[in-house]
Write a structure and sequence with these properties.
single chain, 72% helix, two-stranded antiparallel sheet
Length: 387
């Protein structure tokens, strides 16, 4: 029997999924877009289009496959942008890199050799690269605690204490604390913009070898290795049988459609996929896809009001926004370091990847993430050959 209305349990699950997925990482999205030289209007458009793209993709894929396919923006990917140097072409060059990453994701789904190549990157090196990207961002809260203690410390403490109760709501609670601090410090500033509904801003892309290899390729690799592939694995662990290639091409297509409006990368979710796929979503596995659908609906609603969120965030001290982004990524950093060092024989290559990536170097127009993965890969191959 086809059900035309979602069970109430899946509606509440979808709302929790959207709150966790959106408010736990939107500060990182804004930081990534800012690092790519986006204007305030372009940043609002990017946040809006990213939320709507992942919302519509989750709705369409879950309805089509009748599986709880949760979709997200690439949090590791935007963290990578936040520690990268903007292309010489400015934000238009970043848009070109986003399109390259999306096209590679589509190709990985359609052409099996590329998908296998992405999956063949050792997990330890992929996680080490992610840890190297995240480390500088996770240090910001503690620098802010010294420079702006009365703003940063309440956020850090709220995040820590809320995490003792429920880890999923630690970052949303920190967002609420930061919002209160911004309101108290705003003075006579207007807290809300005159227009609450975000307007899409089209940016004509420009392409260059430097931005493709320096931003597009690392964005593709980190998204595939830490989001798309684990997202499929999470669904399988709950008894669902998605076809990876079809899903990769679908989220890659969503990235291509939304990139010119400022959205960096749309991908499969991992954490929220588990929330939609487990028995808390619905006792009947055949009904759990409604949770992903409702999550997508709420993502779209949050995205529509992105201009209000970005305008309010612009009133915050940059270090306060950095604090929010940093505490949101500490758990991801801990998991990445653990996974990177999990295999003793590969630790040296992993540490080399982590250290070079965290250094922030740029050589021949290519960023530290590329060089870190390249150096770590060479060390990995030489070590295995010697053994």
């Amino acid at each position: 029997m086809v059900r035309h209305f979602p069970p109430m349990q899946t509606v509440s699950t979808g709302l929790v999924v959207a709150i966790v997925g959106f408010f736990s990482s939107f500060p990182i999205v804004l930081q990534g877009l800012d690092a790519m030289a986006a204007s305030p209007a372009q940043a609002a458009s990017g946040l809006m289009s990213a939320a709507i793209a992942m919302g519509l993709a989750a709705i369409a894929l879950s309805l089509w496959y009748k599986m709880p396919i949760s979709v997200a923006w690439s949090t590791p990917g935007v963290a990578l942008l936040a520690v990268s140097t903007a292309p010489a072409e400015g934000f238009s060059g970043a848009i070109g890199a986003f399109l390259c990453a999306g096209a590679l994701t589509v190709l990985a789904g359609l052409w099996k050799p590329l998908g296998r190549l992405a999956a063949a990157i050792p997990t330890t090196l992929a996680q080490a690269m992610l840890a190297g990207v995240l480390l500088p961002l996770c240090l910001v809260p503690f620098k802010a605690a010294v420079e702006i203690p009365w703003q940063a410390l309440p956020v850090i403490l709220t995040w820590f204490l809320a995490g003792r109760v429920n880890r999923l709501f630690a970052v949303p609670a920190a967002v609420v604390a930061a919002a209160i601090i911004v309101s108290l410090n705003a003075g006579n500033a207007q807290l809300m913009p005159d227009r609450l509904i975000a307007a899409p801003v089209w940016t004509m892309p420009s392409f260059s070898i430097a931005s493709a290899f320096g931003i597009g390729l690392p964005l593709f690799i980190v998204t595939m290795a830490t989001q798309n592939i684990p997202g499929v694995a999470v669904m399988r662990s709950y008894g669902f049988a998605p076809v990876p290639g079809q899903l990769f091409s679908s989220v890659g297509g969503a990235s291509l459609l939304s990139a010119s409006f400022g959205a960096p990368a749309t991908c499969l979710a991992a954490i929220t996929a588990a929330m939609c796929s487990n028995e808390d979503s619905h006792p009947d596995p055949a009904q759990r896809y409604w949770s992903a659908i409702m999550g997508g609906v709420f993502y779209c609603l949050f995205g529509i009001f992105a201009v209000a969120i970005t305008s309010f965030a612009s009133l915050a001290d940059p270090l306060l926004m950095g604090t929010l982004a940093g505490v949101a990524l500490i758990g991801v950093l801990a998991n990445a370091i653990h996974a990177a060092l999990d295999v003793p024989a590969e630790r040296e290559a992993a540490i080399l990847t982590l250290a070079i990536t965290a250094s922030g170097i740029t050589v021949f127009g290519m960023g530290a993430a590329v060089w870190g993965l390249l150096a770590g890969g060479i060390a990995y191959l030489v070590t295995n050959r010697v053994r």
